[in-house]
Amino acid sequence: MGEGKLKEIDLYKPIQTYFLKEGYEVYGEVNDCDIVAIKGDELVVIELKLSLNADLLIQATKRQKLTKLVYIAIPKPKISLRSKRWNDICHLIRRLELGLIIVSFSVNRTKTDILFEPTPFDRNKSMQLNKRKRAMLIKEVNGRSSDYNVGGSSRTKIMTAYKENCIQIASYLKNFGPLSPKTLKEMGTGDKTPSILTKNYYGWFDRIKRGVYVLSDKGIQEIKEFPELMNYYLGRVEMND
């Protein structure tokens, strides 16, 4: 069967066969539910679609008013099941506490796989597993002096805490001349100062002798784009006598 010719009803038979083998009674189109499977007191509802979309998720979450055991079923997608995109999709489905069934079609046979069951989503566990990402997010926010980015503008130049730190160092070098990492740190540029100067990610710094840096020609030109930040950091610094 060619995948381009599939209809939703083509998903019914393989899923019906799967659940019959598992000891369920299976019924199609019951009170707006695509498939209903019953075994004892266990009620399973399965919603079918040829592709995973918002309508399918809405439909499935409505069925959760009837039972905790709700699956969505789709043909095996063309994207890799190991891709980040697919992992993100599966996270959303799990977050909605739905199960996922994939039906694979080939010339001679079909195969039904339950990728995961509908289970309660443990939000606390999820947050615990992402404690490091949370800490990094807060650290990034705390490292910024203000909000210089527009939300959603992923294709434009983004101001980060690291870049702000580079601008701070560049501002001091421009206004106070050659400085050492030690002096810059005393002025408040932070513990990353030596690393920033050594890596020189933006090409803004030149080392004129051991342990002494100046602003490069490239740096002189490019930091002109950040007058607000330059003024902010220059206003904070107090040069030691």
From TrEMBL:
InterPro entries linked to this entry: DUF2161, Restrct_endonuc-II-like
Pfam family, one: DUF2161
Protein's name in the database: DUF2161 family putative PD-(D/E)XK-type phosphodiesterase
Organism annotation: Fredinandcohnia quinoae
Higher taxonomy: Bacteria, Bacillati, Bacillota, Bacilli, Bacillales
